[in-house]
Amino acid sequence: MEINWQEFYARRTRQITGSQIRQFFALTERPEIISFAGGFPASDFFPREEIGRVLGELACAENSHALQYAPTEGNHDLRAYLAAKIRCAGSACHIDNIIITNGSQQGLDLLCRILVNPGDPVLVEEPAYVGGMGAIKSYGGVPAGIPMDGEGPLPAAMEKTILKLERQGRHPRLFYTVTNFHNPTGYTTSLARRKAILALAEDYNIVIIEDNPYGELCYEGTVPPNYQALDRSGRVIYLGSYSKIFIPGIRIGWMAAPQAVIEKVCLAKQTADLCSNSLGQRLAYRLSAEGFIDRHVKKLICFYRKNRDAMLETMERCFPPEINFTRPQGGFFVWVQFPPFYPPARELLHLALEQGVAFVHGEGFFSGAGGSHAARFSFSQVSPEKIAAGISRLGKLFYRFREEDTRQAAGE
Ligand SMILES: Cc1ncc(COP(=O)(O)O)c(C=O)c1O
Predict the structure, then answer these.
(1) What CATH code would you report for 67-293?
(2) Distance of alpha carbon 162 from alpha carbon 139, whole angstroms
(3) Ligand 1 centroid from CA 184, angstroms
(4) 215 CB within 6 A, ligand 1
(5) CA–centroid distance, residue 104 to ligand 1 (Å)
(6) What are the residue boundaries of the structural domains of the chain, listed by start?
(7) Does CATH number 3.90.1150.10 belong to domain 10-46+294-409?
(8) What is the pLDDT of residues 25-67, one digit of tens each?
């Protein structure tokens, strides 16, 4: 008898669904396509030589520590380094407030595992990082979207949602947010907004999960202090990552939180993977302590800034004026909004692919309905020349809808 696996899967796996974005990757990542779809860092800029040098030294070290299991909470030196980094960002942080995770994605997963009950509402930005929503949903949490503008999530809308949920007897206990150069919009939450949202979190006793993988990739100005630095009641859990400032392949991220939370996360992590990548932790520590990563980030900033400038400058020049797009100060993403008379972005993507260009259409970033006329464009992996070529091809395509609309309005 052939096994029907559906009968074997646990009930909670019904919430684990593939993201629309990943389903489209097979189409968008063909070599002939100029793809603004994937949000990966640029692999051309991975520091192969430095990595090779340090890995060689670590692998040959007589004590073999780098090749052995590590403590579940992570390598002591790396945790001490990261605690000092967080203190520099303005938060009181001790080594016991830090746990190393397999990327910040694992931090999100472990937090949802210890904080989210099936059916719990969890406040998220709208649009939101798909991996964050995925983690929430995989534990039965129900994302409740808070709309955003250029300054971040709207506090009035957030309070309205909290009150609405409370009237239904469903108190939201968590707010998940990407504060700097948000994925997918590129927005950075302003200082005033951070203060207003923190005040709401205090009033309604909500914990904030602050996910900040892009904050150091700042191409102009500065970013406001983290929620964790502004917080006075220990209600902020911070997630950081080496993926965008160094390499994602080592899968090293960190969580900074009150010690009691770290202890609970540590217990959850023991059954997930025992410990994070030992070799990767030592590699990250050595290159951080040598000052290499900070120098590398400065180079990344120059490199990605050119890409961002090429994308914004070409959108400005080649997109019809009815298309709105964000102007991120850092990170990888531009959020594009099409007017309602355009076909849905999902259809635009198919037309764009015929022109050899790809992006991600917006619905997948929304917890409810929304995003049908929006798209995420990533400038991280494409050269400025190709960015200019891809965007100007799209500009020509989009002008067709403007012309059709003008003809229809004239009754032709
Ligand atoms: C907002 C956000 N959070 C978390 C992650 C996961 O990163 P990591 O590689 O550290 O797991 C990503 C990856 O793209 C991201 O964009």
Answers:
(1) 3.40.640.10
(2) 21
(3) 11
(4) no
(5) 6
(6) 10-46+294-409, 67-293
(7) yes
(8) 676 677 889 999 989 999 999 999 999 999 999 999 888 899 9
